[in-house]
Design goal:
Layout lengths: L1 H147 L4 H30 L1 H32 L17
Helix pairs in contact: 1-2, 2-3
């Protein structure tokens, strides 16, 4: 019994010794950890101070760069503004020169248009007078043919119908001429083309009359008329 108690006491001492050693080791680890923490904290503070100094230095550099950039931008803006003002003045001068040139050309075109208008009116008057002369001569000759050649009554009627058609054409031309004169400013080219087509139609009709007379063995010369077609 005594031996058993001694063994237990020995084991207890051994365990207590081991526990004490373990506690000492843990205490040493704690001390070393505290030293490491203090060292790390010191390093962190030093690094933080170093970073802060670097940031302050970098901020100062950025402020200087910003001031320099602002100065350069202001100089560039002034240069661009001066260049734009110069270009604008040049463009204004060129614009005025172009406007003056266009105005001169416009005045020339108006003068030429007025000249063409006067010539067109003169040609229309001449054409109207020639048409009236031809109509009167043809009417008289056709009446004479109707009296002299009863056997050609049907052909004469057809010729009279053609003359009537020509008279209607002349009347229509007169009405259209008045209308064309009112619309001359906006439809001058259209009017000229239309009159040309009508003249060609009249020439075609007159040629039909000559052909009809030729079919009867007659001509305008036989009737005492000269051909009004000329070079047509």
């Amino acid at each position: 019994m005594q031996q058993q108690e001694n063994d237990e006491l020995s084991r207890a001492k051994i365990e207590a010794t081991q526990q004490r050693r373990r506690a000492d080791a843990l205490e040493e680890e704690l001390r070393l950890a505290k030293q490491q923490y203090v060292l790390v904290q010191t390093q962190l503070e030093q690094e933080e101070e170093c970073i802060t100094n670097k940031l302050i230095k970098r901020l100062d550099e950025l402020k200087k760069e910003k001031a320099q950039l602002v100065c350069e931008v202001e100089q560039e803006e002034e240069l661009v503004s001066a260049t734009l003002r110069t270009r604008l003045q040049t463009a204004n001068h060129e614009h005025e020169a172009v406007i003056h040139k266009l105005q001169v050309q416009l005045d020339q075109l108006r003068s030429e248009r007025n000249k063409l208008h006067a010539e067109k009116i003169e040609l229309e008057n001449q054409l109207e007078a020639e048409q009236e002369f031809i109509m009167n001569k043809l009417q008289k000759q056709l009446e004479k043919l109707g009296a002299e050649k009863k056997g050609l009554q049907r052909e004469t009627s057809e010729l009279q119908l053609q003359i009537k058609t020509l008279a209607q054409c002349v009347e229509r031309l007169n009405l259209e001429k008045v209308k064309l004169e009112q619309e001359l400013e906006v439809e001058e080219e259209k009017i000229t083309n239309r009159l040309q087509r009508q003249v060609e139609s009249l020439v075609g009709t007159l040629r039909g009359v000559e052909s009809a007379l030729a079919g009867r063995g007659l001509s305008l010369k036989d009737l005492g008329l000269s051909s009004p077609l000329g070079g047509w």
